[in-house]
Amino acid sequence: MKQVVCAAFLRNGKILLARRAPGEHLAGFWELPGGKVEADETLAQALSRELLEELGVKARVGAELTRSIYHYERGSVELIALTTEFDGEVGHLSVHDAVQWCSRGALANLPIAPADIPLLDSILA
């Protein structure tokens, strides 16, 4: 099972989500930014690397908030959400085409990646 780390960026009661770009797996769905953990990495190292690659953000990664397992047709993943902070703005997008700070209420109007729904429910509870 693959481990995937996700950033829980929280500011002023909102959480940062990123929309998968056309041509990417789950294109058009909003998700917590992050990515796969490589064999030689800690969870924090993996998340820091992924955020720099995908968002151009130098993040401060903190404690684990929650985790869940999701079964896609092409395999299962364990998603692990970590508290994360950064200063400034997103530098660039590589696998996403938009980012947005979302309130809990705004999530109902967005197509959320299915694997991220339990994490968001736990984080924003």
Helices and strands, with pairings:
Blueprint: E1 2-11, E2 14-20, E3 30-31, E4 34-36, H1 43-55, E5 60-72, E6 75-85, E7 96-102, H2 117-123
Notes on the structure:
There is one protein chain. This protein has 125 residues and is α+β, with helices and mostly antiparallel strands. It has a single domain, classed as Nucleoside Triphosphate Pyrophosphohydrolase, CATH 3.90.79.10. Helix content is 16%, strand content 42%. It is built from 2 helices and 7 strands; from the N terminus they run ββββαβββα. Strands 1, 2, 3, 4, 5, 6 and 7 form a 7-stranded mixed β-sheet that branches. The mean pLDDT is 94.
Write a concise synopsis of the structure shown:
The chain has 125 residues and is α+β, with helices and mostly antiparallel strands. 16% of the residues lie in helices and 42% in strands. The chain has one domain (2-123): Nucleoside Triphosphate Pyrophosphohydrolase (Alpha-Beta Complex), CATH 3.90.79.10.
